[in-house]
Design goal:
This protein is of the alpha+beta class. The chain contains seven helices and ten strands. The chain has two domains: about 70 residues, Orthogonal Bundle (Arc Repressor Mutant, subunit A), CATH 1.10.10; about 160 residues, Chorismate lyase-like (Chorismate lyase).
Length: about 240
């Protein structure tokens, strides 16, 4: 395919988005409609759109089409602010959907990290997070029930940090964090309604109590275009 065709298309939509003529959340015409309007093949259209997606300007939702990407949320994972709070403070609407909540035996890795015996019951929590109705984050969490008895009976679609404070008088204190830019694994991509292998950010976090016990192990999978990591360090 001639490079000029898909590059022209890419530049055309890029300019519209950067000039705010195509606004955040706007649905683009279908690939067929774009091809007919510009008299190019579907392959050319798809190449241009995929390049725009790689730039973070648009995103594809399975079975729904292409949309203009909203501004990324600024996220400080060391701040201890709840998802609901930091999203709301940036002028957007957060929502949490609980996909699974069940007690299960700790596997060898989780047991080692929590310093508990393999097979000890832990709470597994699987949630999908939204900003303005767009799914942007998958969480898979393992929670130490020895420190939070009865938590399995709570509604954990709500803010976990607020629940810990109100019911258990506990707060997140120290944490270990790791970040990895990666192709999203199939389980996370499926949960987000996007194609397996798309770029994403994987965050692994271990939260500790004030007496250095592991309270929670959290694995997060973000859309690459949905988040800007910003960590403030002060003396």
């Amino acid at each position: 395919m001639p490079n000029s065709q898909y590059r022209y298309l890419q530049r055309h939509f890029s300019d519209l988005i950067r000039d705010n003529k195509l606004k955040s959340g706007t649905k683009l015409p279908s690939e067929r409609e774009i091809g007919e309007a510009f008299k190019v093949t579907r392959v050319t259209v798809r190449q241009a759109l995929q390049n725009l997606e790689a730039e973070g300007l648009i995103y594809r939702q399975n079975r729904r089409g292409w949309f203009v990407t909203p501004p990324a949320v600024v996220y400080d994972p060391a701040s201890h602010l709840s998802f609901n709070r930091y999203v709301a403070e940036q002028g957007s609407t957060p929502h949490t959907e609980k996909l699974a909540q069940q007690v299960e035996p700790a596997n060898a890795k989780i047991a080692q990290l929590m310093c508990i015996t393999e097979g000890t019951p832990v709470l597994f929590l699987h949630r999908r997070r939204y900003i303005n109705l767009r799914p942007i984050l998958i969480e898979k969490m393992y929670i130490n029930l020895d420190l939070l008895p009865g938590l399995e009976n709570e509604d954990l679609s709500q803010s976990l940090s607020q629940l810990l404070q109100q019911k258990y008088q506990r707060e997140y204190r120290d944490m270990d964090l790791s970040f990895k830019s990666t192709a999203l694994p199939s389980h996370a991509a499926n949960d987000l309604g996007i194609s397996t292998g798309q770029a994403g950010l994987q965050v692994e976090r271990i939260n500790y109590t004030s007496d250095k016990k592991v309270l929670e192990i959290d694995y997060e999978f973000w859309r690459h275009d949905a988040v800007t990591i910003n960590i403030a360090i002060r003396d």
